[in-house]
Amino acid sequence: MTKISFYKVSGGIASAINLAAKLTEKSVEKECKVLWQVSDKKLVKHVDQVLWSYSHTSFLPHGIGPLSGPVGISKESTPGIHHEVLMNFQKDIPIWFSRFERLIEFIYEDHSDTEIKRQHFRFFKNRGYETDYIDLSNEKFT
């Protein structure tokens, strides 16, 4: 069964993306494939830039689309080759989320997005999924 984690950060979506990059780095070190599911082309480009410049001492191998590995950034409605870690930056829960070992949702300072994440949390809890809530709002992700 998919393990669901909710990470709360202070700041806006940029903080959440930086945390997701850090989590992606850890997943790649463990040789896990990661799919960033994002809402639009603009966010695809932004995440691509963040992953290219994330660290001066390491490289996060990634590409655009769900067929890219080990890290893919996609707005498409398919998981492609991925099944290990899903970073969800969309408003909806992908209908194929349960094929993943782990789904990560991000809560950041955006009122409408926070309400959406509450709905996601209830959705998973009501269906018996194991959920974690990790509050990192006292840490900086820049």
* Assembly type: single chain
Class by SSE composition: alpha/beta
Anisotropy-based shape: globular
* CATH uppermost class: Alpha Beta
Arrangement of strands in the largest sheet = 3-4-2-5-6-1-7
Whole-number count of domains: 1
Order of helices and strands: EHEHEEEEHE
Radius of gyration: 14 Å
Report on the biggest sheet. Answer: 7 strands, parallel
DSSP helix fraction: 25-40%
CATH architecture: 3-Layer(aba) Sandwich
CATH topology grouping: Rossmann fold
Q: How much strand content do the residues show? A: 15-25%
By DSSP (H or I, 4+ residues per run), the number of helices equals 3
Tell me the number of strands: 7
Mean pLDDT: 94
Query: Could you tell me how far the N terminus lies from the C terminus, measured between alpha carbons in angstroms?
Result: 33 Å
- What is the name of the CATH superfamily? DNA polymerase III subunit chi
> pLDDT below 50 for ≥5 consecutive residues: which ranges?
none
